[in-house]
């Protein structure tokens, strides 16, 4: 059952996800607001993040199986090959069964904005790694 | 006079169904199962090797008709999550007295939960652990914890990579993806019996099984289960902030047409068009 083609999915979007996106956008500089597009049966959130020195163009995709399946986030801006970066510049943000609560996707507690915040945290780590060669957060276990 | 709606009649589901259908209180059964009976199912299933190639749902119907000819059995040979077949599935949930989920994937469990909450249905879920080392039985009441509350409490997550690569045998210390080992028929039957008993208990609206989730160990597994045949009961409260179920409980439902209009408006505000 899909996010856009089931009543439960549409209700989740209307009552949970879209209000938090509007809250995120409120009073935010227009170039850093989230823009939402329908792509097939998915929703794509397009936005910019500036965790430190650089601005990154990022996309978070809410698949048809969202929120059961975690959102996928990829950085559009070219990155150096680094830890925790998957094929297609997809960020490795969630780990099944992780004992660290922020690394374990929980559809009953997290919204898509949590994924945006996770991407911000990942990019902040990337900038530290770029300067020092060390990823500043421990591995998710 | 109870109507059972059951999703899944695999090796675990058929064992639960066989136990439930022998109870005279169950008078009508709706089965939802899209799969075909395959050669590798034979070892753990009630059906004959000669039945290979036939739909599991039809085989289950025949099994029930032989067992209790007076039982009314309806079959939906469809995927529970297929958007195109939701009308007959919802009709079954709307009329059912109790539900059994014997599906083995998280999407189906969440969708079953959504339908059960929509129609105020009590339901149960059974899961045999890989290797048959134990299993879970979960009981859900309409006003209680939803599957999202339970999954969060038990720290469950969906696999995040469905296309798992082949292990890198040149790096023995590297990442190893979880594999599943088929459970024995005996392990499946043990958990299925607990699942069936819990389901029958839910037929009485006032009955309290004493747990939301029950873990029953069937083997000693160092570092995981200290001994076999130990019961762990969890009473899991409904999380008032659960993003899966709070909308239903708060009764903030918008009717379907208004929902579509409101959603289109919200997407329009957030789009770049």
Describe this structure in words.
The complex is a heterodimer of chains A (141) and B (273). With 141 residues, chain A is of the alpha+beta class. Chain A has a single domain, classed as Ubiquitin Conjugating Enzyme (Roll). Chain A is built from 2 helices and 6 strands; from the N terminus they run αββββββα. The longest helix of chain A has 21 residues, at 112-132. Chain A is globular, with a radius of gyration of 15 Å. Chains A and B meet through helix 1 and strand 1 of A and helix 4, helix 5 and helix 8 of B.
Helix content of chain B: 25-40%
Would you identify the regions of chain A where 5 or more consecutive residues have pLDDT less than 50? none
- Outline type of chain B: globular
- What oligomeric state do the depicted chains represent? heterodimer
- Rg of chain A (C-alpha, Å): 15 Å
CATH class of chain B: Alpha Beta
Report the order of strands and helices of chain B: EHEHEHEHEEHHEEHH
CATH topology of chain B: Rossmann fold
| Biggest sheet statistics of chain A | 4 strands, antiparallel
Shape of chain A: globular
Q: How do the strands line up in the largest sheet of chain B?
A: 3-2-1-4-5-6-7-8
How are the secondary structure elements laid out?
The complex is a heterodimer of chains A (141) and B (273).
Chain A: H1 7-25, E1 35-39, E2 42-49, E3 56-62, E4 72-75, E5 85-86, E6 90-91, H2 112-132
Antiparallel strand pairs in A: 1-2, 2-3, 3-4, 5-6
Chain B: E1 2-7, H1 11-21, E2 26-32, H2 56-67, E3 72-76, H3 86-95, E4 98-101, H4 106-118, E5 122-128, E6 134-140, H5 147-153, H6 185-202, E7 213-217, E8 231-234, H7 246-249, H8 256-270
Parallel strand pairs in B: 1-2, 1-4, 2-3, 4-5
Antiparallel strand pairs in B: 5-6, 6-7, 7-8
């Amino acid at each position: 059952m899909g996010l856009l083609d089931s009543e439960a999915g549409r209700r989740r979007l209307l009552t949970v996800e879209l209000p938090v996106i509007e809250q995120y956008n409120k009073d935010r500089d227009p170039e850093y607001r989230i823009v939402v597009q329908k792509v097939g049966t998915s929703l794509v959130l397009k936005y910019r993040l500036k965790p430190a020195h650089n601005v990154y163009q990022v996309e978070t995709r809410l698949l048809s199986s969202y929120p059961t399946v975690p959102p996928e986030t990829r950085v559009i801006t070219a990155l150096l090959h680094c830890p925790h970066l998957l094929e297609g510049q997809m960020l490795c943000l969630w780990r099944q069964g992780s004992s660290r609560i922020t690394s374990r996707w929980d559809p009953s507690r997290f919204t898509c904005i949590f994924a945006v915040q996770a991407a911000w945290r990942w990019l902040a780590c990337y900038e530290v790694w770029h300067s020092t060669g060390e990823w500043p957060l421990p591995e998710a276990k | 006079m109870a109507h059972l709606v059951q999703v899944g009649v695999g090796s675990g589901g058929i064992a639960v169904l066989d136990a439930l259908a022998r109870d005279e209180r169950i008078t009508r059964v709706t089965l939802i199962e899209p799969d075909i009976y395959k050669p590798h199912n034979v070892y753990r299933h009630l059906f004959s090797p000669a039945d290979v190639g036939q739909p599991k749902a039809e085989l289950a119907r025949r099994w029930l008709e032989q067992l209790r000819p007076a039982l009314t059995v309806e079959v939906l040979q469809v995927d529970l999550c297929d958007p195109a077949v939701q009308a007959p599935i919802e009709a079954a949930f709307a009329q059912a007295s109790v539900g059994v989920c014997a599906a083995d994937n998280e999407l189906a469990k969440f969708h079953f939960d959504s339908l059960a909450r929509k129609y105020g249905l009590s339901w149960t879920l059974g899961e045999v652990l890989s290797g048959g080392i134990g299993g879970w039985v979960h009981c859900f009441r309409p006003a209680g914890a939803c599957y999202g509350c339970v999954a969060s409490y038990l720290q469950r997550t969906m696999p995040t990579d469905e296309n798992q690569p082949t292990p890198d045998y040149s790096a023995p210390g590297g990442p190893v993806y979880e594999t599943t080992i088929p459970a024995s028929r005996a392990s499946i039957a043990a958990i299925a019996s607990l699942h069936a008993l819990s389901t029958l208990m839910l037929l009485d609206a006032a009955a309290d099984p004493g747990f939301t989730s029950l873990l029953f160990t069937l083997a000693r597994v160092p570092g995981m289960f200290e001994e076999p045949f130990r019961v762990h009961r969890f009473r899991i409260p409904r999380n008032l902030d659960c993003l899966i179920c709070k909308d239903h409980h708060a009764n903030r439902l918008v009717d379907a047409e208004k929902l579509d209009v409101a959603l289109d408006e919200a997407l329009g505000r957030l789009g770049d068009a």
